[in-house]
Amino acid sequence: MRAATSILSGLMWPSTLRSRIFLILLIGLAFAYGLSFSVLYMERYMSAKAVMLGTLEHDVATSIAVLDRLAPDQRVDLVDRLGRGNYSFVLGPGLPGVPDTSSKGVEILGKIEEAVGHRFPIRIERIPGEVSRLQAHLTLSDGSPLTIDVTPKGVMPIAAWLPYVFAVQMALLVLCAWFAVRQAIRPLGELAAAADALDPNNKDGPALSETGPSEVAHAARAFNAMRERIAHYLEERVQILAAISHDLQTPITRMRLRADMAEDSPEKDKLVHDLGEIQRLVQDGIAYARSAHGSGEKNARIDLASFIDSISYDYQDIGKAVTVVGLVQGAVFTKPHALRRILSNFIDNALKFAGAAEISVGRGAADDIVITVMDRGPGIPDDMLEAAMQPFFRLEQSRNRETGGTGLGLAIAQQLTAKIGGSLRLYNRTGGGLAAEVTIR
Amino acid sequence: MDHVDHVLIVDDDREIRELVSGYLQKNGLRTSVAADGRQMRSFLDANAVDLIVLDVMMPGDDGLVLCRELRSGRHKAIPILMLTARTDEMDRILGLEMGADDYLAKPFAARELLARIKAVLRRTRMLPPNLQISEAGQLLTFGDWRLDTVARHLLDKEGTAIALSGAEYRLLRVFIDHPQRVLNRDQLLSLTQGRDAELFDRSIDLLVSRLRQRLGDDAREPIYIKTVRSEGYVFSVPVEISEPRQ
């Protein structure tokens, strides 16, 4: 109804398809229904009036003729019997009234005049009062006055219960329109929800129900087939990457061993360095493919403080400057390997560009856990922070070949963050340096 | 006559077998090679071996299958170093779960392989474990704690995982493998040295204090790791092996 009023005011067209279709159906049906109702009403009114006036014409003419012929004393006996439901005869001049010029009065006057064949001059008057009442005054041939008292009962061509039927029918129409719209719109909503929740990695996830009307079932089948195709492509991608990397692993291992066997020389060092780069690319490529595909790792409740400490100790034990500057107590429910990999990628970046990393853990607005890895390196220009999370992104001025890296670290971190249901943010710190932040619930 | 350690290399790639074999020989080890599980079994039936370098990705019976077979058979005392082509954490865990003593991801530096082989040999020779954790993947229960040897973390009474750094885990495993036995600092240091042996230079005392902190042990009145004056440390709580998880 709110939608209907807004339409009436012409201010707003409802935004949902549901309201629009509902509104169109409702207005259309109500209009058509109202139209046929009024036509019916009009037709019935006309015919009822014709019948009534016709009766009035004949009966009144006959009655006046009879009364005119009778002797005045005999008229008294008869006058009451000549009356009908909506008119009666009164001998005498009647009540004082005001001249009536309404169309109804004129019409009735005309009918009576016609009926009596214009033999008696007739004057019609309205009697003021609550009830609509007309009196026609005429003088019979013997000079005595006669009054026809007319109480036009509103011509009600339809039964009193009919409006209720109309109301019930309207309610039924509203209900049907709403139900029909719901039928048509609901599968669309379900399809959208399924597309939103689409996780091709989770093959065991519920497929869209393929029941319902044939169009809906068809759309659901097509959607499920698409879902399977996506899952298949993703699987294929991982398989291809795994196959390539496996096939590369053996020759790289051979080359590495051969290089190790060779005499020490600058050439050997360069070869080992290049092999290291190839190897890292292969490993990060697999890691990236797997991060998109999901490792099937289960959630576990982990103690936050010992988790962060263990990461920093592992780095410290191999001589890296990784320190914990802030901790909160408590446990989180997450995928520990994925989270460790995310933080390791942040830390590796920080170590690469700044030589040192600081880890800080705090609680966010909604009591979620915010883990931040900070450095005092060159940072990333603000307009490139988004792009930095794309695979194979490199800041050319700072990330040259010397620093190594495949440009997959942050992309992997972002994929894994999505997998653990968290969010990732990069920002430049005041005073220089980059902060990489992962928020988990 | 000095004992020369005999290493069996099991890898399906001929060149890798020969390269590894050549490198190890150059560095004073005796080596033999096998191309698959069948050759490995027949070689072990006729020869004594000190360590097996086992490749994971092999046609036929792969390294994981062979590892489990070795661990449940009569050769279960031979240390195994697994070569894995995969780098994924879960695969590493799987290898250790099957009972390998250490692992190395391909491609690897020959120098590192040699260091690992020596570390594993030193470990098993220096102090054979009292508690034979032949099938890892079990929960080790002591005091209020359980140690998950697959995920390599502690579980408290409520089941919350308490993460351990690599060095902390290795130290705890040394203690757990040798309960109620006084271990001196040199023993602890060499047994704890793992992957990054040459880089690891934390003193044992610092590591013990970290571990005590993880276990909620008060340094003045420790329950789990007690100090033995001028000798070293002793893990004073009995350890039980729980059933593998599901």
Describe this structure in words.
The complex is a heterodimer of chains A (441) and B (246). In chain A, strand 4 (134-139) and strand 5 form a beta hairpin. Chain A is rod-shaped and about 155 Å long. The mean pLDDT of chain A is 81. Chain A has helices at residues 2-8, 17-69, 72-82, 103-115, 162-196, 214-261, 266-293, 304-317, 336-354, 409-419; strands at residues 87-91, 98-99, 122-126, 134-139, 145-150, 300-303, 321-326, 331-334, 356-363, 369-374, 423-428, 434-440. Chain A has 441 residues and is α+β, with helices and mostly antiparallel strands. Chain B has 8 helices and 13 strands. Chain B is of the alpha/beta class. In chain B, helix 1 links the parallel strand 1 (6-10) and strand 2 (30-34). Chain B has 2 domains: 6-126, Rossmann fold (3-Layer(aba) Sandwich); 139-241, Winged helix-like DNA-binding domain superfamily/Winged helix DNA-binding domain (Arc Repressor Mutant, subunit A). At the A-B interface, helix 6, helix 7, strand 6, helix 8 and helix 9 of A face helix 1, strand 9 and helix 6 of B.
